[in-house]
Structure prediction request, 295 residues.
Amino acid sequence: MRSLPPLNPLLAFEAASRHLNFTRAARELNVTQGAVSHQIAVLEEYFSTRLFERRSNQLELTPSAAAYADALHGAFEDMRRATASFSSAASLRTTLTIKGYPLLLSRWLTPRLPAFSRLFPDIDVRLVSVSGASLVDFENQDIDVGIRYGRGHWRGLTSHLLFRDELVPVCTKAFARQFHLRKPQDLVGKTLLQTHARADDWPDWFDNAGVADADALSKVMSFEDLGLVHRFALEGSGVAIVQKAYVDDDIREGRLMIPCPQILHRELGYYLVNPVSSGKEPKIRAFCDWIRSGD
Prediction:
C-alpha cells in the first residue's frame, strides 16, 4: 500500500485547485506564491504527472487532477469540521487546581472527587500538595482553591469548613492486643507516632483524657510527613495521633482501630479557601458549591 503524499504539498494543491490561482492560494495559506509553486512541483514529482495546465492565462486542472481535487475537498472539509468541533469541545474543558495537605488530599478528598467529576465532566481536577508547613499562596502560585488549617478567618479569602480537629489514637489490632490497650492510661510509655508540626497533639490528647503521667511521652517517634505517621501505624510500629476523618476507611475496613474512645476536639479545623475576587469563576463556584452541599 502506497503511503500518503506529504501534507504541505497536499494543502497547497487543495487550496490552488479551489482558487485556480496560486496567488490567492498563497494568501489563504499565508505563504508566498513561490512556496505554493514549489509545493505543487513536489506533488507533481511525487505522482510523476502534471496537475495543472495553463490555457489562455487561465490555470486549469488536468482531468485526473480534477477528480483527485474533488476527493481532497471533501476530505479536507471533514477535517476542518472535525477540528472545529474538537476545538470547541476542548475550549469548554478547564482545569481546577487544588492545593492542600498530602494526607487530606489522598485520604479525604480523592475518594470524593469521582462524584464531582460525574457532575462536572468538563472540569479536570489537579491536586498539588503543600510542602511542610507552607501555606497556600494565591498571589504567587497558580492555585484556584486551597486548604488551610486554622480558625477560618483569613483576609481576602472566602473559607468553608471541611471538618474540625477530631484527633484519635489509632493502631493495628495486633498492636492493641500485644500491649492490652483499652483505656488512655494503657498508652503511657508506648511507642507514640506524631509529626514535628503537631507536637502538641499527644500532650493535649492525654490532658483531655485525664492522664497526667510523666512517662506518657517517653517513647515518641516524630516525623516530618504525616503520611509516614500513617504508614508506620499501618505497619504496627506504634500508636498514631491523627485526624479521624483521615482513617475512617482504615477503621471501617479493619486495617486500624481506635484502642480507646477518647477524642480530642478543637475549634481549629481544615477549610476550603479561595480569594474573594475569584469566587464567581464558574469552575471555582461549581467546586465550592459542590463541597458545601456535602454530595
